[in-house]
Amino acid sequence: MTFTRRTLLAAASAAAILAQPFAASAADLPKNIRMVIGSTSTGGDTYQAASIVADALSEKLGANIKVDAVGAVNGFKALERDSRGTTIMLFHDFAYLAELYGGKGFVNPFEAFTVGATIANNPGNAYLVGANSPYQTMEDILTAAENGERVRVAIQPGGVSEIGFSAMKNAAKVRAPGSEENIVPVNTGSQSDKNQAMWDGLADVINGSIQANEQFTQLDGDDQKAMRFVWITASPETLAEAPEAGMGKLTRDGMLDYASPATSVTLDGTQDFTFDKEFFLIFNKDMDPALIDTIDGALAEIYDEGEIQKKETAAFFTPNFRPSAEAREHLMEKRETYKKVIAEISG
Asked: For 28-79, what is each residue's pLDDT tens digit?
């Protein structure tokens, strides 16, 4: 494993937690714990990330932790009803982005719940064009908008799928005020819906992922389904910890070509926008803090031992353990950044 600054900071956090005494122990935790996730898919990245950490925590705590793919709204409802610790949640940035985008029924999780430790990033969030698109780069797309061309971007409204689209509009506004009106959404649903929008000629750019779309970038350029990456939103620090071989035929170096700073989507004219899709735990607001400390302590031991990092990396996640207090501060800072981006294009 490459020991980057992120890895070393995580190790230091884990060591600090391991040195602390805990008011609760594994014996105080419920023996059967339901880990709800904000997805209804048992084949997606949220379920996969949850399964890896649930298995590790089960073994470390001597508890039976089962992942339940109930979706975001039902997950938050289940969590709200249970302060005993028998229900916990694992989700990603959609947890706070949905509320920022005005999603019906969503609240600020930092106020309504207790946000816990981060466990991993998915570095795969990306944007793609058709293989025969006149747009070769994000620079081409932003220049086209500046020149009055209408660029249609297929997204699933709200949350992770839309935040990069918002960043595109914001970058266009920073570069040439008014040009952001030429970057328009094509609101769809699942990844297959977004792909189909491109194939049907309804979208010029689509939100996708390395995991789901890399296969289409390997098709012959004359194939109707062939695509090209133009932007990977992950930070270069996150991508630097991805396997060198990358995924499919897209190597880690190839990924970095589509990410900041090689591919620039400006945030404010001086720094680039980046977005790491991070997975983290969420607890009922009234759950005993000592039990949360116990879970933090168990995670610190798990990440100190190192086996979970191997499993996460093999599944194309970037290990990213931060204990609860540090994670909350970090995620709240992200929320404030994206809140400003959304406000800029909504004003």
From this structure: 789 999 999 999 988 889 999 999 999 999 999 999 999 999 999 999 999 9
Reference 338, options 166, 108, 114; nearest CA is 166
Instruction: Check whether 185 has a pLDDT greater than 80.
Output: yes
Does a structural domain hold residue 190?
Answer: yes
Residue 249 burial by CB count (10 A; 0-12/13-18/19+): exposed, middle or buried?
exposed
Distance CA(241)–CA(283), nearest Å, equals: 28
Query: Which of residues 209, 226, 257 is at a domain's end?
Result: 257
Amino acid 43: pLDDT: 86
* Domain harbouring 37, CATH code: 3.40.190.150
Pair (228, 167) in one structural domain: yes
Average pLDDT, the chain: 93
Q: Evaluate whether 94 touches 159 at the Cβ level (below 8 Å).
A: yes
DSSP 8-state symbol, 30 = -
Look at the chain and report how many structural domains it folds into. 2
Angle of CA points 53, 113, 65, to nearest 5°:
25
Query: For the domain that residue 221 is a member of, what is the CATH number?
Result: 3.40.190.10
pTM (2 decimals)? 0.89
Supply the range of the domain harboring residue 22. Answer: 5-123+276-346
**pLDDT tens figures, 85-121:** 999 999 999 999 999 999 988 999 999 999 999 999 9
Q: Is residue 264 part of a domain?
A: no
Q: Each residue of 277-296: pLDDT tens digit?
A: 999 999 999 999 999 999 99
* Dihedral sign for Cα atoms in the order 268, 272, 273, 276: negative
Is 108 found in the same domain as 84? yes
Burial class (CB in 10 A: 0-12, 13-18, 19+), 86: middle
How far is residue 186's CA from residue 151's CA, in Å, rounded to a whole number? 10
CA distance linking residue 233 with residue 220, whole number of Å: 25
- Cβ distance 285 to 113 under 8 Å? yes
